[in-house]
Design goal:
The complex is a heterodimer. By secondary structure, chain A is mainly alpha-helical. Helices cover 73% and strands 1% of the residues of chain A. Chain A contains 23 helices and 2 strands. In chain A, helix 4 crosses helix 5. Chain B has one domain: Orthogonal Bundle (Recoverin, domain 1). Chain B contains 14 helices and 4 strands. Chain B is globular, with a radius of gyration of 19 Å. The interface between A and B is large, with 36 and 40 residues.
């Protein structure tokens, strides 16, 4: 009795002293009263529990002095409300936990109000857990309170469900918690998985943000290519290899008799002829069987769809990246007024404690100051306007001449290579002349443009944009000239095909007749696939040409880096001791990292991949390897042989510029592929579409045969131009509306 | 625990504004940090004790920040002085501002924080940041990687940006006006970071 009385007294004292919400207090006291009632009842009903009750009382007695101490601490605290609330909650919770721990045995008989109280307490504990971080407590204290709160929540959350629903509720809660933990772990894992982050940071602190932006772009490209590779490899190449007919079983999959002798030679393989030509890497290998294997996999349909979705995915990814960049770049638009003050007073990062990081930070602060100095200098120049304009016009005229010259050169060389291919005994040079000329043009024209651009005297950032634009025009012109010449080749092959078709037909017929003519009624032995006369298979030829161009481009890039940067750096470093003039200061000195050249090289490489992936599915795999090795190779080359730019400027909004170029290239490389799909007939004896009049007929075929009837009818209605044109107009107008709204939003932000 | 009580009582007795700024547990925590820094165990910190914090040692302005702790001409700082300086870094609470207009401004008000930062740059305490002082700061931040001439231009340009009354120096009022400087110094991120470092 005395215990109860003193408990009541203490409760009253606490009520007076604490400025808590009375609700909580009531709930506590109610609970205590209820629990005390129960304990009293139990005492009477069950003798065994008397011992328990006594020990519980003793427990409460023990808690008394600590509670007193807490009360005195409370009294002395100042007016920080938050603090108090937190502590008080902690106190009440501790109190509750002790009282409710005594209730654990009474779970089955919890009444409604107790359930509500319990729920409230659980909510309180949860809130405490979530705001734990912001509390200005010592770490040990935080940890102990946290553990206690978590234990409480875990114990009683399950008890909140009613009756049979209790288990389900507990289960749901547990799953929800596990899900949150899983999401957090997954996020951490994802951040850890970002490859090459430290490498790029190192490059950034030494060379500035523009050079680092190239590597970030490279990494992004690698990601996109990896996805494309996964698509193509998983959905086209693997099914054909696993479930399609094996090598040697069909004419299209076998090396012709005439070539078999040399099919394994390295020089032949290097030209992508021989065994490589008749492998899953190229279009010609694929069989036109509608379904293959026991899965009834529709390979031609898959091939077509994957080809289209490669472009679709790339488009989506590029546009998403552009949108993200656009959002970010508006953030730093308005600190133009106090650039230097800002830099002076706020560049240091107070969290750095590591000496090496501090060095990196010094380097980046220095670079940032230099960038701003250059910006300032550029904006302060004023010169003779007329002279400048004249020089600029002159420079542009010169450059246009160069472009036309290179375009003509390529056309000439491709035409020559066609005559070469008809000759016998072609040397290595004649076979590879086109690729060599294109690579040489790509290597020497950009520096030429830069030299001419010195006449123009632009701010480095603007000058870089012009340079990029010009190199872009160069590469584009070269590529399209190459394609045009290739188209001539294709048309010739198509004409040839008719002839060969007849020959093949007659050969098979005669073979059939001759073998049957022996008088047996048995089926004639099939003609060995290697002996069947072959059509020219223009798709594989196109694929091979593009693959060879890509490979030679890769090689030229690597050799340029090796010789132009590394060997040059070695030469300058070691020959400087015994040379007449100072190699490091004068010619040739160390190379600077050529951002524009590298970025454009990457973009055009990607354009070629997009163009060629439809005709050579293995091309994307080659590109993935190239990007991977490029990353390591170029990082090494930059750190070991390059020096930071003498004129340093910010990359700032160049990212969207690169993305814009990439988008343009995507469209431009889509055009030839779309044209060939729509208007050229596929070869009659190679590829997944052989035998059809047009490649896109595979869609019609699939709809007719694989889908229920009404789908075919729907498609036939939808394909009506009368419906498509209004749909396109509608989409265009929606796109315009959305972009207007986005611009208005940006405007409002500024 | 006893030590804490004693020092707390001392401060309470002197009706210090500092003690009102920090809460009880914050004071406890600061005191434990103070004692951990105080290797000599004589109840005061010297400059060498501060240098032991790596983030301060590496900071180009580290020496000046350490100086800010020590009152004029003294080499030792006691716990009260320690807390006083750190009180500048607490986040601003707007409800506190409106409470007490007549009393002394709390140490973590906007303008007191800016004063603190201003004093880091203004070495000779003439309430102006002159070109030479800016040059010193720049030299500390970029080392020898930029030529003196360029540093001079940067300093000139900075003064040109911020100076409004044409005296070729940045006064406190002009310092305050430098746009986002407010944001950076008063933002929650810079302060808790710094506070976290010291505590």
């Amino acid at each position: 009795k005395t215990g109860r009385a003193s408990r009541l007294e203490r409760k009253k004292q606490e009520k007076d002293k604490e400025e808590d919400e009375s609700k909580e207090e009531d709930s506590c006291s109610q609970q205590n009263r209820a629990s005390r009632k129960k304990n009293y009842q139990q005492k009477n009903s069950d003798g065994k529990k008397a011992g328990e009750e006594g020990s519980r009382q003793r427990e409460r007695g023990k808690k008394a002095p600590t509670k007193d101490q807490k009360e005195s601490e409370n009294k002395e605290k100042k007016t920080n409300k938050k603090e108090k609330e937190g502590d008080d909650k902690q106190k009440t919770d501790r109190k509750n936990s002790t009282t409710t721990s005594s209730n654990s045995s009474d779970e089955e008989s919890l009444s409604e109000e107790e359930l509500a109280m319990l729920m409230e307490q659980v909510e309180q504990k949860k809130k405490l857990i979530s705001t734990m971080r912001n509390k200005p407590w010592r770490m040990m204290k935080k940890l102990s309170v946290l553990r206690e709160a978590q234990a409480f929540v875990e114990k009683f959350e399950g008890a909140l469900g009613k009756g049979k629903g209790k288990k389900l509720y507990a289960y749901k809660m547990m799953m929800a918690k596990k899900w949150v933990k899983f999401k957090r772990d997954f996020d951490n894992f994802k951040t850890q998985c970002i490859p090459w982050e430290m490498k790029i940071k190192e490059v950034e602190s030494h060379f500035g943000s523009s050079v680092a932006s190239y590597f970030i772009f490279l990494r992004w490209m690698y990601g996109v290519n990896l996805v494309l590779f996964g698509l193509i490899f998983g959905l086209v190449i693997i099914p054909e290899i696993l479930m399609g007919m094996p090598y040697g079983s069909m004419p299209r999959k076998t090396v012709p008799r005439a070539e078999q002798a040399t099919a394994m030679d390295f020089s032949v393989l290097w030209d992508f002829e021989g065994y490589i030509k008749y492998s899953a890497l190229f279009y010609g290998y694929y069989n036109n069987q509608r379904t293959i294997g026991w899965l009834k996999y529709r390979l031609p349909m898959a091939y077509f769809t994957v080809g289209i979705s490669v472009f679709g995915y790339s488009l989506m990814v590029v546009i998403r990246s552009m949108a993200r960049n656009a959002n970010e770049s508006t953030a730093d638009g308005d600190d133009d007024n106090f650039i230097f003050s800002w830099k002076m007073f706020t560049s240091w990062d107070y969290l750095i404690g590591n000496p090496e990081t501090a060095d990196n930070k010094f380097a980046s602060i220095t670079t940032s100051f230099k960038e701003s100095i250059v910006d300032e200098q550029e904006s302060n120049k004023d010169e003779n306007i007329h002279l400048r304009r004249f020089l600029r016009v002159l420079a542009n005229v010169l450059i246009i001449c160069c472009l036309c010259g290179s375009g003509y050169l390529i056309y000439f060389v491709v035409k020559r290579s066609q005559t070469f291919s008809k000759m016998q005994n072609v040397g290595w040079y004649e076979r590879n002349e086109v690729e060599i000329v294109m690579s040489l043009l790509g290597m020497f024209c950009p520096p030429l443009f830069e030299t001419i651009a010195a006449l123009e005297n632009y701010h480095p950032r603007i000058g870089l944009k012009w340079q990029l634009g010009r190199i872009f025009a160069l590469f584009l012109g070269n590529l399209y000239t190459f394609l045009l010449a290739l188209m001539d080749d294709v048309n010739e092959k198509l004409a040839e095909e008719d002839v060969v078709k007849n020959i093949t037909h007659w050969t098979l017929l005669s073979h059939h007749n001759s073998s049957v003519g022996n008088g047996s009624t048995a089926t004639p032995p099939p003609l060995d696939p290697a002996d069947v006369p072959r059509g020219p298979c223009w798709e594989t030829t196109v694929g091979i040409e593009i693959v060879r161009l890509t490979v030679s481009d890769i090689l030229v890039t690597y050799i340029t880096i090796l010789v132009g940067d590394f060997i040059r750096a070695c030469f300058v470093r070691f020959m400087n001791y015994c040379w007449c003039w100072d190699l490091e200061a004068g010619f040739p000195s160390y190379a600077e990292f050529d951002i524009s050249g590298n970025v454009l090289g990457l973009i055009f490489n990607q354009g070629m991949i997009w163009m060629g992936s439809f005709y050579a599915p293995g091309l994307v795999g080659i590109n993935v390897l190239r990007l991977l090795t490029s990353m390591y190779f170029q990082c090494w080359a930059v750190m070991s042989s390059n020096v930071p730019h003498a004129r340093v400027f910010k990359a700032s909004k160049s990212n969207n510029f690169y993305m814009g170029l990439l988008l343009l290239i995507l469209f431009l490389s889509l055009l030839p592929v779309a044209y060939t799909i729509m208007s050229l007939p596929p070869s009659f004896d190679c590829g997944p579409f052989s035998g059809k009049k047009r490649m896109y007929e595979v869609i019609q075929e699939t709809i007719e045969l694989d889908f229920p009837l009404f789908v075919a009818k729907i498609f036939s209605y939808v394909a009506n131009p009368g419906l498509i044109i209004p749909a396109i107009l509608l989409m265009v107008s929606i796109a315009i509306k959305i972009s207007e709204r986005a611009v208005a939003k940006l405007y409002r932000q500024l | 625990m006893e030590k804490v009580n004693r020092s707390r009582d001392k401060q309470k007795g002197k009706k210090d504004t500092t003690a009102e700024v920090f809460s009880h547990s914050q004071i406890t925590r600061l005191y434990s940090r103070f004692t951990s820094l105080d290797k000599g165990e004589n109840g005061t910190l010297s400059r060498e004790d501060f240098q032991r914090i790596p983030e301060l040692a590496i900071n180009p302005l580290g020496d000046r920040i350490i100086n800010a702790f020590f009152p004029e001409g003294e080499d030792q700082v006691n716990f009260r002085g320690f807390m006083r300086t750190l009180a500048h870094f607490r986040p601003i609470e707007d409800n506190e501002k409106s409470k007490d207009q007549n009393g002394p401004e709390p140490l973590n008000s906007r303008s007191n924080k800016l004063h603190f930062a201003f004093r880091l740059y203004d070495l000779d305490k003439d309430d102006k940041i002159s070109r030479d002082e800016l040059l010193q700061v720049l030299r500390m931040m970029v080392g020898v990687n930029i030529s003196d001439e360029q540093l001079g231009s940067i300093a000139d340009r900075t003064i040109q940006e911020a100076d409004q009354d044409g005296d070729s120096a940045i006064s406190f009022a002009e310092f305050v006006k430098v746009g986002k400087l407010h944001f950076y110094l008063l933002n929650e991120t810079a302060h808790p970071c710094f506070l976290h470092t010291l505590t």
